[in-house]
Amino acid sequence: MSQTLLIFDVSSRFGFFLNNLTTTSGLTHNVIPRSTVEGLVGAILGLQSNEYPEKLEGSNIAVQILSPIRKHTVEQNFIHETWLQAAGQKAHPPTESVDYHWQASQELLVSPKYRIYFSNPEVDSDLELFLENSKARFIPYLGKSSMIASVKFIGKYRYEKNPSIQYVDVSSIIPFFDEYPKIKIVEGIRLSTEDGMSIHMTKDRASIGTYSAIYSENLNEISVKDAEIYKVTMNGKNPNIVFLPIRV
Questions:
Q1: Residue 65 in contact with residue 9, Cβ under 8 Å?
Q2: Cα 115-116-119 angle, rounded to 5 deg
Q3: Predicted confidence (pLDDT) per residue in 103-136, tens digit
Q4: Would you put residue 138 in left (φ > 0), alpha (ψ -120 to 50) or beta?
Q5: Which of 29, 104, 132, 232 could join 159 via S-S bond, C-beta 3.0 to 4.6 A?
Q6: Listed residue (92, 93, 71, 70) closest to 80, CA to CA
Q7: pLDDT by residue (tens digit) across 161-171?
Q8: Closest residue by Cα to residue 37 from 61, 15, 19
Q9: Domains of the chain by range and CATH?
Q10: Predicted TM-score of the model (pTM)
């Protein structure tokens, strides 16, 4: 049975998607997580932080990487929360930087760009209207408010399950949990794995479930077998995608 989904591209000069598997706060995922896409769509629709998690939790979402993974490390200055407490107790804020400031390295993605495949009957009509008119109620960004995202609407297209039992070339990243998907190794295609990406964030900002994903470093399609693959019909092209998990 054929259904429809909305396709749009998002990009920014920089991006940052916190990797919670590390012992520091300075490392980023190489790929935009599903939970971040939910937040991005929520911002476009103007949904509050306590609204979009429940409304968008059941969305079908697939992600295609459109730009090479490039990173740049920067040094950032931070102020400890005790500075605010001290500032409230004095006529003038404290100036002893050694007591309240520290510096840490932070990875940033350089010029990230992704194609988002999205479907949710509850919000599709409203989202399509915003995308068609290049509007958003809240400013969308890629990880941090300073990393404002450019959103380009590609269109509304039909998709259906691909019935093939053979290897199929897939344009999106390939999510998985414990077992690696069946991938055909092709000379010249460099594959990488990203682990620990958040599936969903609750309204209380708690992460619910994580998944891993395989992607092509040089932006090639990945040939995969025995996965739940969907074929999209768009402008004479028929890209295949795999939706990100909705729950563990």
A1: no
A2: 155
A3: 777 899 999 999 999 999 999 999 999 999 999 9
A4: beta
A5: 232
A6: 93
A7: 999 999 999 99
A8: 61
A9: 3-77+104-241 (3.30.70.2660)
A10: 0.88
